[in-house]
């Protein structure tokens, strides 16, 4: 959904504000509208406002999107109405294949020089508990990140040192290597040069930058504030623009956190609905009960009142409307389903014979007694299961094969009529 407000009005800045002013205004607006900074009842409204503020910043802080907005207004970012058309550049395709920036190498045509392409996005998996999806949470993460070396400014060489043209690939950044595509068929394939790593040039050991060792980048750490909105689920993603590893000659890609829901010991989730099993004793099933049967994800005790005279049956489902997971958008919630697991007593729970006789008087009794002329009192396994059901005959030899061996050629013969 695209906001109809002007981005400059949302951030409370003038139309010609600088990047520094835009960033400062965004931090102020984001802090005041952050869902974790308001009361629980105002979180949904704050979450919606936070998204609008973030969208305004994304439009204004980038020169390309800002130009699109100046030309076409907010309609340029509304995908439901088409938005701005996307296009594919052959230089992007070649660069993605060989990790090269700039235009195509000699002999491949190409276009006029243009701004550096964007490096691939980096995706990280982040495991989230069901409680965090239910209540929402903000976590701070320190992530390893590669940035351009400040000493050599991403060149990889010492000051005033000049890179040498790679003789292995003749300065093209790639090689034509024969690859087998059939039993007796070879075909030339383009691969990235392993000497210059596709950079077309390299520095000798004595000319390499001492800080980055000629790698052009250094490894550091950056702290990210990861906001997990209420109602989000497994598979949702949170994107930080231009926050992936920096690559020389390229714009940084995005850092994307892929949410993975942890398995919960009590609750099972299906979109906005929750399900849990509750244990009910035989006494409670027959006589009713009134107690807390499960603790919810926010710590609340869920109490069920089962009146006397109503029998709780195994597998019976109690549905509590509106007490499931929050919807991703809005104040509504899904439903909570509680399934009855009947807990029968252990052997020997009735030590007195008189109590057994009293229980036998309690209805219902068997409707019809099965009678037979011959009664077989069998021995049985009280702890059996169905894992071996249907396997009793596997160890027995085939009766047909035995009969054939015993009867030989003297058995009855059948002929086709």
Features:
417 residues, alpha+beta, 4-stranded mixed beta sheet, 3-stranded mixed beta sheet, 9 helices
Structure overview:
- The chain is α+β, with helices and mostly antiparallel strands.
- 21% of the residues lie in helices and 24% in strands.
- The protein contains nine helices and 15 strands.
- It has helices at 7-11, 19-33, 43-61, 63-72, 90-98, 130-135, 282-287, 353-360, 399-407; strands spanning 122-128, 137-148, 164-165, 174-182, 185-192, 201-202, 217-228, 237-240, 255-261, 268-270, 273-281, 289-295, 301-306, 317-320, 336-343.
- The strands form six sheets. The protein has a four-stranded mixed β-sheet.
- Helix 3 (43-61) packs across helix 4 (63-72).
- It is elongated, with a radius of gyration of 36 Å.
- The N and C termini lie far apart (80 Å).
- Residues 79-94 and 96-112 have low confidence and may be disordered.
Which strand order does the major sheet show? 10-11-15-14
Main sheet makeup: 4 strands, mixed
Order of helices and strands: HHHHHEHEEEEEEEEEEHEEEEHH
* Low-confidence parts: 79-94, 96-112
Strand content: 15-25%
- Alpha carbon gap, first and last residue: 80 Å
Structure classification? alpha+beta
Would you report the number of β strands?
A: 15
Number of helices: 9
Average pLDDT rating: 78
Gyration radius, in Å: 36 Å
Overall geometry comes to elongated
Helix content: 10-25%
